[in-house]
Amino acid sequence: MAVLIVEDEPSIADTIRYALETERMDSIWVTTGQQALDALSEGNIALVLLDIGLPDMSGFDVCRVIRQTSSVPVVFLTSRHEEIDQVLGLELGADDYITKPFSPRVLTARIRARLRQPPEAANITSAGFSHDADGARITLDGVLLDLSRYEYRLLLLLMSHPGRIYSREQLMQQVWEEPERSFDRTVDTHIKTLRRKIRDINENSDPLRTHRGLGYSFEAGA
């Protein structure tokens, strides 16, 4: 998964890419709105970092098109400081609005914060699991799962995208607050604990699948 940088100024794009690389985050750089939409349609995009003043179309229009088909996090990064632009961007469905000039460290911190946020999933019901967003809790067959913070975030991310395979690195980046300080097997340990807690409620329930060499997924039919 990569951060899609939509920016027509090479010097700014280079600064962003270097900052992301320093934080061990992959990136893809495009310079036009259409290139951004094409890249997004190919998948594997974790977040879109979007300028407004693009050469072929407005970043606002790009965001509007994205929101018709995708819930991928969108963060505007622009030199427009006017309040009306910020309001418009957020009303179009952007998740954040950052103005230039910017601090690379603050930018990467805010990107990480967005990637850690569980998706909006107030009424997820899948394979006997139900998520209550207001109560931040998950039940299985009507029984509350007693989960730690990271177990909750991990299970919610996986069940929000049934069938999608997440690598260990992707899970670390999107679930843990300080992934660089965590051990390599942290994800495996949490998956093992989740499986035990799930089977304590329903011994026949096994939705967390291991894909050797690839990662983990939530299988709704399991």
From TrEMBL:
Entries under InterPro entries matching the protein: CheY-like_superfamily, OmpR/PhoB-type_DNA-bd, Sig_transdc_resp-reg_C-effctor, Sig_transdc_resp-reg_receiver, WalR-like, WH-like_DNA-bd_sf
GO molecular function: cis-regulatory region sequence-specific DNA binding; identical protein binding; phosphorelay response regulator activity
Keyword Hydrolase attached: no
UniProt KW rRNA-binding keyword: no
UniProtKB keywords: Cytoplasm, DNA-binding, Phosphoprotein, Transcription, Transcription regulation, Two-component regulatory system
UniProt DNA-binding residue ranges: 121-220
GO CC list: cytosol; protein-DNA complex
Subcellular location: Cytoplasm
Matching PROSITE patterns: OMPR_PHOB, RESPONSE_REGULATORY
Domain annotation OmpR/PhoB-type: ranges: 121-220
Residues with PTM 4-aspartylphosphate: 51
Annotated Pfam families: Response_reg (PF00072), Trans_reg_C (PF00486)
Domain Response regulatory: 2-115
Biological-process GO terms, alphabetical: positive regulation of DNA-templated transcription
Name of protein: Two-component system response regulator CreB
Species in which this protein is naturally found: Nitrincola iocasae
